[in-house]
């Protein structure tokens, strides 16, 4: 409900003032506790000396903000963002190889607000704000086996929906006349369990106790964005 209210407020503000497009590029860490546990179970179930060669590490995100001024030192708007990470379990010997990949990606839509103010009347400004995210995560389980000359592969797809919140602080400085923001924040999310697309009750479980699996996008975020005004 809070996210919806922020989006409605942002839409009303944008309709009455100059619009700024803010392309954004970021880099983040991901907690992925549930996914790492799934990876450990998969390694144990192979019966092989398999290793996790990728474990849902840090990766880039990119997106676009659409914001407008509310007053002289604040902006409000909405954004789109895409991010990804993944894991891999691998084993190989003289007779063949085994790979189990779990790539994940998310698409987020939400509202944002930030305040910016000059530091001692200079061109440098500090920034503080917050974002509310609505998330959709996609995951593929991709298995590949090769024994001598025989190969076999399979793929299963799962979805998850969630919400996220990110407070952030940063600095703004005009580069080539365009205000550029470098910010750091911490993203916190909560997600519905992974399930078969369109079948919310068919959830991915990790063991016989029906423990469900969730994405975990929480972590540090570093972002760079550039404000490009659109004259109306």
From TrEMBL:
<feature type="signal peptide">
    <location>
        <begin position="1"/>
        <end position="15"/>
    </location>
</feature>
<keyword id="KW-0732">Signal</keyword>
<protein>
    <recommendedName>
        <fullName>Outer membrane protein beta-barrel domain-containing protein</fullName>
    </recommendedName>
</protein>
């Amino acid at each position: 409900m809070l996210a919806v209210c922020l989006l409605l407020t942002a839409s009303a503000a944008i309709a009455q003032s100059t619009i700024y497009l803010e392309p954004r590029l970021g880099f983040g860490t991901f907690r992925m506790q549930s996914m790492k546990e799934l990876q450990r179970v998969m390694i144990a179930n192979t019966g092989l000396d398999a290793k996790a060669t990728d474990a849902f590490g840090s990766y880039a995100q990119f997106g676009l903000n659409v914001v407008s001024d509310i007053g002289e030192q604040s902006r409000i708007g909405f954004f789109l963002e895409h991010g990804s990470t993944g894991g891999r379990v691998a084993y190989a010997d003289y007779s063949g190889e085994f790979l189990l990949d779990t790539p994940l990606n998310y698409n987020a839509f939400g509202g944002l607000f930030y305040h910016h103010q000059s530091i001692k009347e200079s061109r440098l400004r500090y920034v503080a704000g917050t974002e509310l995210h609505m998330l959709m995560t996609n995951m593929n389980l991709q298995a590949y086996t090769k024994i001598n000359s025989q190969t076999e592969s399979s793929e299963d797809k799962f979805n998850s929906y969630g919400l996220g919140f990110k407070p952030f602080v940063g600095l703004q400085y005009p580069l080539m006349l365009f205000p550029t923001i470098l910010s750091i924040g911490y993203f916190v999310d909560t997600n519905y369990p992974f399930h078969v697309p369109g079948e919310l009750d068919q959830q991915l479980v990790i063991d016989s106790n029906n423990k469900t699996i969730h994405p975990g996008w929480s972590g540090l975020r570093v972002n760079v964005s550039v404000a490009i005004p659109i004259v109306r």
